Amino acid sequence: MNTTQNLVLAGIDGSSLSNAVCDYAAWIAQKVDAPLKLLHSIDHHPEHADHTDITGNIGVDSRDHLMDELTQLEQQRSKLRLQQGKQLLQAARERVMQAGILDPLTNQRHGSLVESLIELENDLRVLVIGLRGKVHENQPDKIGAKLESIIRSLHKPILVVNAEFKIPQRIMLAYDGSQAADKALDMVATSPLYKGLVCHLVCVSKDEGKVPLLEVAANKLQLAGGIEVIAKKLVGKPEQVLCDYQDQHAIDMTVMGAFSHTRIHDWLLGSFTVKMLANSHKPLLLLR
């Protein structure tokens, strides 16, 4: 396949989740028959933050010499980052080829990861990315520093990977009747990605009026064919009962809408999406 339209994009950075990102991306690309691209972004800004002015109280000649050394050091760092990125992409390419991808694409870009993804968005079918990168990979209570910005900036499905790859057999669709939830419902009903899977359609609400909505949604999935549907209404704190349900029913992946409320609402009450990202032990496929 030589087109780059509607591709599966895997963002890798050499963190412990990069292999799982590659594996999930390869699985999706094969299931939906889409090209796969591997992306590594080199962000220079963190290193630049260290280059404060330390030359103010030394002589002109010494200052010029020091600036030359700093420039050479930055050039060496840039070459090293470039080489490391190429090695990461080559290893990732070999991994997805072993998983059955015939001709994976690779792309190394300089600058902000968020900006790179926005530029690539029109070609995306789905983005696969790790829950946390190298900066936070040893902090299980943290999510990636750029992850929320990425989710808010893109309007394509994003699979956030937080564990080793396991071929999904059971998914959970968190449904609340919202526009984002209906979009997720349509995607599950129509995409070849979910055929042959068991879908737990779960609604968390004290409102009994949600029951008819849940029944309509379940019927839509059943009419689509190829999906076994289990509908369930739960009561409680959404992020807690959904994560508990994941564990109790061995859910392999959760599908849900992302950031359906306003920034002000999130600031006052905390974002449900962020809470799910922080508490879930299984990958989350987010839609906006």
UniProtKB/TrEMBL annotation:
<dbReference type="Pfam" id="PF00582">
    <property type="entry name" value="Usp"/>
</dbReference>
<feature type="domain" description="UspA">
    <location>
        <begin position="8"/>
        <end position="161"/>
    </location>
</feature>
<protein>
    <submittedName>
        <fullName>Universal stress protein UspA</fullName>
    </submittedName>
</protein>
<feature type="domain" description="UspA">
    <location>
        <begin position="169"/>
        <end position="288"/>
    </location>
</feature>
<dbReference type="InterPro" id="IPR006016">
    <property type="entry name" value="UspA"/>
</dbReference>
<dbReference type="InterPro" id="IPR006015">
    <property type="entry name" value="Universal_stress_UspA"/>
</dbReference>
<comment type="similarity">
    <text>Belongs to the universal stress protein A family.</text>
</comment>
